[in-house]
Amino acid sequence: MSTTIGAPAVVADRLRRVFGDFIAVDDVSFEVREGEIFGFLGPNGAGKTTTIKMLAGLLLPSSGRGSVAGLDILTQSEAIKRRIGYMSQLFSLYADLRVDENIAFFSGLYGVPRQRRAERRDWALQMAGLAGQGKRLTGELPLGLKQRLALGCAVLHEPRILFLDEPTSGVDPLSRRRFWDLIDALTQQGTTVFVSTHYMEEAEYCHRLALMNRGQLIALDTPAQLRAGVKEPLLELHTDDGPRAVEALQDLPGVVETAMFGRAVHVALRDLAGAREAIAARLADRGLALDALNPIAPSLEDAFVSIVRAAGGAPVG
Amino acid sequence: MTPPNTVVAGTRPAIGVAGLTRRFGATLAVDGLSFEVASGELFGLVGPDGAGKTTTLRMLAGVLRPTSGDAVLGGVSVARDPEGVKHEIAYMSQRFGLYADLTVLENLQFYADLYQVPQEERAARLVRLFHFSNLQPFKDRLAGKLSGGMKQKLGLSCALIHQPKILLLDEPTFGVDPISRRDLWLIVHDMVAQGVTVVVSTAYMDEAERFDRVALLHQGKLLALDSPAALQRSLAGEVLVVQVDPARAARDLLRSHPRVRRAALFGDKLHVTVASAADDAPAIDAALRAAGLVPGELHAAAASMEDVFIERMAEAA
Q1: Which positions ≥6 away from A50 have C-beta within 8 Å?
Q2: How far apart are the C-alpha atoms of A107 and A109, rounded to whole Å?
Q3: Which residues in chain B are contacts of A308 at CB distance < 8 A?
Q4: Residue A315 and residue B149: Cβ atoms within 8 Å?
Q5: Whole-model pTM?
Q6: Sheet of B297-301, strands arranged across
Q7: Across residues B136-164, what is the average pLDDT?
Q8: Which of A123, A103, A105, A122 is nearest to A185 (CA)?
Q9: Alpha-carbon Rg for chain B in angstroms
Q10: Does the model's ipTM exceed the 0.90 cut?
Q11: Are the Cβ atoms of A262 and B218 closer than 8 angstroms?
C-alpha cells in the first residue's frame, strides 16, 4: 500500500510515564506519517493505552515530548483534543440516549458548525449502518453497531488524526471486517489513523507496526519487513501427538523454539542444514509419527516472539 | 431431552448439556444450548463478546444457576447439586483469585491446601506445572508484580494443583503476550494428554483449530458444532488465497465477479470463495490482471474458522 509522505502527524520523543514505581512507558520515540495507518501491537500491560493517552492529551508524560498535528502535547493538550478523534476500548457513548441524541451530543462537544450538523449526522448514521434508525436506544444496539457508531461520533468533526485504542476487542469477525473497511475509507480521504490491537491479522492491515513490550518499543517496521526480519528458518510439523513432540524437540541441538500452532507444531531453527534428519530421528526415537514436515513463512506472531526473544527473553515484569 | 450434538458412540460423555438457558432481565444470554463433551476431549467455546461463553462456563462450574435446562459434569447435575459439581472440576474465570501479596510459590501452596492435595504428591506436581509454565525462576516474586501473561499462567497452575477430571477455562489467552500464550497452550495440551477433559472459551478464531471439537456461539445460540476440519469442509465452495496490492480495490472488483461467492480481506491477503478453486482460479487471475492488479500469489487453501463463523452467522440471521 502506498503512503503519503509528508510532515509527521504524530511525534513521540523519548516519552516516559511512571506510575509509582511502575514504568508504564519507557523512553518511547517514533513518528507517524500523515495518511498512515499506524498499528500499535503488544500484550495487555505493554504500555499501549498509556502512550495513546499521552498523545491524545489525556495524560501528561513524566518526561519526554511529543506533538500531534503540529501541536505540543505538553502545552496544547486542549487544542489537540479538538483536532483529533479518540475512541477507546470502553465506548464513550451514552447507553440511555438515542442514537440521534448521542450524535447531537458529540457534535456539540466537538464544535461542529450548526449548518453542518444535519449533514454530518446523516453521514455518521450511514457509515454506522444505522440509516433511518436514529431513534433506537444506544444501549440496545449490538456491540458491532455500537462500535461503528462510536467511530462515527469520534469523527463528526472530521479530524485529521484518529486514535483508536483496541476498538475491535471482543467484536465478532464480520463487524471487525466492516470496521476496518471504515478505517480504510477514512485513510483514503487523508486521515491518519493510530490504532492499537492484539489481533495479529488486523496488524497486517497497518502500513507500519510498532511492537510494544514491557513499556518499551522493541520493533517498528512494515508487517512485511517484520516478517522478513525473522532469521530463524521455520518448519511446520504434523504429528500424532503435538505436545509430546514439542517436549521431544525443545532440547534438540539447533532448535531455537517449538510451539503448538493449532494442531501443528512450529519448529524454529538456527539452521536448516541437517535439521530435517535430526527431527525425524528424534521423533522416531520417541515413538512419535512424522506425518509432514515442511518449511513455512513466518507469521507476524512468529516475528513478535522472535523479536521479544532477541530483546532479552520472555516478556516478564 | 436428547441433545442433538452427541459424542462418538461408546464413550461416556464427561459433560452433558441439555437446553441450558440463562436470562438476565430481558436478555437471553444463553439460549437453549445442548451438546456433549466426550471424556478426554479438548472442547472449544468460540465466539465474540456477548456470545454467552462466560455465562455458559459459569453455569457449568456451578457458580451461576441456569434459568432452565441443566448440565451434568462427571455425573453431577449443576441444577440440583451446584456444590457437588465443584469437586469434579477446576474452573479458571477471567478474574482468577490470585493473592497479589503472596509469592508465586505461596499462591500454589495456598491452593494445594485449599484442595487438600496430599503432601507427598505436591513436589512432583509443582515440577510438572513449573516445567510448562516457566514460572520456576519467579517462584519468589509477588503475584501482584507479575505480567498479565504470567498471572494467567499462575492462575491456571493454581487451578490445576489438584488434578481435576474436568477443566473449565474462560478466555485464558485474552490479551496475553504470544510467548505466555504458547506456554498456556502447552499446559492445556499436557492436561489433555493426561486424560483431563478441557473446555476452553476464546474470542480468537485462529485458536479454534486447536480443539478436538468447536462450538461456535453467537448471541447465546449454538451456530455450529463439529471438529475444525469438518466445519471447514462444510463450507459451500472453496477458498482461493490471493495476495495482491491494493487488496481492498481487488476485493471490491472481485465482489462483482460472477464466479465469486464472497471476497474478504485476511490480513494482507484476500480470501475469495468460489465454487471450485481449480476451475475458477484462471478466471479470477484474468479479471485481476485486466484491471491492472497483478496477483503476487494465488492458490487454493482450506477455509479458516473465521470464514466458517461468518458463513454460519449469515445463515442464522
Answers
A1: A17, A24, A25, A59
A2: 6
A3: 177-179
A4: yes
A5: 0.81
A6: B260-266, B269-274, B238-243, B297-301
A7: 88
A8: A123
A9: 22
A10: no
A11: no
